[in-house]
Amino acid sequence: MNPEQPQRWWTNPDLKAALILVAAGIIFFADVLFSSKNFYYRDILNFHYPLRKVLIESFARGEFPLWNPFIYLGQPMLANPNYMALYPTNLLHLIFGFNYAFKLHFILHPIAGGLGLYFLVRRLGLPWIPALAGALSYEFSGVVLSFLNLYNIIPAVALIPWTGWAFYGALQGHTWRRMSGFGVLLALQVIAFEPLILQCSVLLLAALSIVWLSQQQDRLRAIRLLVITFTAGALLAAGIAAVQVLPTLELLPLSARGSGLDFRSATGWSAHPADLLNTFIPNFFGNSFTIDMSNYWGELYHESKAGYIASFFLGSVTILLFSLSFFSQRTKLRNAMVPFLGISVILGLGKYTPIYPWMYEHVPLFDLGRYPSKYFLLTSLIVSILAAAGLESVMSLNKKRHSSMNHACVVGAAFGLALLGLALYWNWDKSQLESILRAATGSDLVENKNYPAIAASLGGSLKSTGAFLLLGSLLVLARQRIKRPAALGCLLTLLAALELVPPNIGLAPLMSEADVDFVSGVNQYMVRQQTGELGRAVSPTILTREPTGFTLRAPNRSLAWMVLFHRRSGQGLDGIRNGIQYSIEESIDYLNTRESESLLRSCLKLPPERRLDVLANTNSSMIMHLGQLEDPRAELLQRFDTHSDLDYRLYRLNDALPRAYFATNVIPTASADESLTVFLNMRHSRESVVLESVPKIPRAGLSRGGNVEILHYESSRVLCRVQAHSDGYLVLLDSYYPGWRASVDGRETAILRANFAFRAVPIPAGDHNVEFSFVPRTFHIGLAITLATVTAAAVLCLWAWIRRRRRS
């Protein structure tokens, strides 16, 4: 083609690469894209799915999703980043049905992540075939696909490379348009906030900053430009995300996570050093997606359960290409990236290194994040970038480094042959590998393991790794004989993708739409029992612990049956979508209020009969229980078949306090701790309330102080009618939280903290209408800042565009 002739769109290599990445993603996700199957693993169905229902239903009613009354006695919704209330994939629900839009959220991000990595590598100056190889290695890596099990973190796999692309572009062409793009992408990361993932983004931006600075002649001017770009982008991101950020900043110090996580929680699910073997050996620990994990042997390395990151597999071909980047002429890129690669690995190992404990103790806010293995997302990204550089060096056929590269490939081929030999040996003598695995499992887990299947799987993985590493090394060694470097690059790219896809295709197990939509018998029964009076449900884990080793009747060993068992036994938060509200409960994200967390922890320390007192005082009337509940207040309603040998029953707690009641007997306390103590020991009384620093109101001698009727109950608005025979307090057993306002007959009145965790307002004698409404100042201030920032950014970009047009 004539170099002076303009390039046609159909010959554009970037377009071809983008189409390949999208097509590969569609093929990879074909099973879930073109069927009714959906994702369910980990917290997807029992936490994120019902919360997403609440969020989308709020939008459908034309409301801002500010408050969720269904969990933890009521909690803020917009303020909790796990809801991702303002994240763009919520718009999918305008186009598709709920279940399809829900799974598209998972599918789009790995594909977008591959595209982001490709264009980032291209912006760093690499040719399109090496960039495509790096993008495929990233898009289908075990780490990226493991994030399919994490609804609220999967956006990071796309946002991090695209943020790096936008940042580097803003440095190259210092325009308002590019800086605005960087700010918008950074704002999306703030909206989908996760502490460790945000640190990964900052580390990547730091690495890219070093790459860019190393290429500049005027370093002082470059540093000044770098500071301006990052500051402008960060301020723009903060302004755009202010509607989310300000409520979140209000929530954090008031939440269970606000005081920081303890060291065990913060460093749980650190990547074990043994996980480094999983980077080039697929399914190293076996299959964890079974009921009894009989085909998995990694519990001793992963907090006595399956790893948080299901797979660290990057592929032996990708790692080979990464190692060849040390022979690349892109020394500035490599020298900038490798130190941050080491940092991500060290941080990912968490408690297994001395650095992470030191940072936990001495770095402010570091204790807000948890599960250090998340840092390996940055590891995967940097390895993919350097693998692209390595492939470029292979395709360049640089004679100066030909000998050194050959030596490295000979070592790779020898290692591949060794793995093949080891796999063949263990295939011949299966008992030896089984013995090694037994010793590495732990004596208390040996009986449940299917060691022949585990050994066969590990042997197959070793064989696959050896074969791909050998073939990749031989292809590089033969590069001088392959006349077309592009053909060699395409072969190595295809080889890297072929190694990654088969073992990683099962990292996100699926279940049918019928199983996703399944409504358990216990939830159906509780809905029928609702007669208009509000009450909360209690999961069985509050009063009893589920025994280990129970028998589950299931046609196969898929973990999906365990999810259905949890639904049938009333566990999790699945009933939210049926309108069931839950009492104190174990929080998954630790962003419930401190009061609800303190009530839970204190309640679990009490004997079972005392726990019932606490549940009664929190308006918890429906109690799921394992076995018989020996208490005269508990009325057995129904027994449920959970397809197991466990006897789950539903009880009604007959003396549970109503959601709203009128109290004339005040129990004054001097502090929150004293209020908690008094509340935990308070016997059932419909006329008593615990208040901090409020004088006791004398009773008027009436046997009944008054009646309360809830006329209207919405997520952010509650309307009550009070018939008070004397002065007293209306007590509403919903969470006390800033932003709630109350008015009595249209006159605003103060809300007091009642019964340690709830709300109360003073009521004079007579008939009154009392309205509670959630009007958080942080939301309205944040919304104003967001609108002003978006408007200002649009005006500046338009002004810059007009100036550019005039000049041209």
Overview of the structural elements:
This protein is 49% helix and 12% strand. It has 27 helices and 20 strands. The two termini are 29 Å apart. α9 (195-214) packs antiparallel against α14 (331-349) and α10 packs across α27. Among the domains are: 518-653, no CATH class; 660-670 and 687-775, Immunoglobulin-like. Strands 6-5-7-9-8 form a five-stranded mixed sheet, sandwiched between helices. It has 808 residues and is of the alpha+beta class. It is globular and about 95 Å long. Residues 698-703 have low confidence and may be disordered.
What is this structure's SSE topology?
Blueprint (H helix, E strand, L loop, with lengths): L12 H16 L1 H4 L4 E2 L4 H17 L6 E2 L6 E2 L21 H26 L4 H12 L2 H5 L9 H17 L3 H16 L3 H20 L4 H22 L1 H10 L11 H5 L48 H9 L6 H19 L5 H8 L13 H21 L5 H27 L1 H12 L9 H27 L7 H20 L5 E2 L1 H4 L4 H9 L6 E3 L21 H9 L12 E2 L11 H11 L3 H9 L3 E7 L7 E7 L7 E6 L6 E4 L1 E5 L2 H10 L6 E5 L13 E8 L3 E8 L3 E5 L7 E5 L2 E3 L2 E3 L3 E6 L2 E9 L2 H31 L1
Parallel strand pairs: 5-6, 5-7, 11-12
Antiparallel strand pairs: 1-4, 2-3, 7-9, 8-9, 10-15, 13-14, 14-20, 15-19, 16-17, 16-20, 18-19
Helix pairs in contact: 1-4, 1-5, 4-5, 4-7, 5-16, 5-20, 7-8, 7-9, 8-10, 9-14, 10-27, 11-27, 13-16, 14-16, 16-20, 17-18, 17-19, 18-19, 19-20
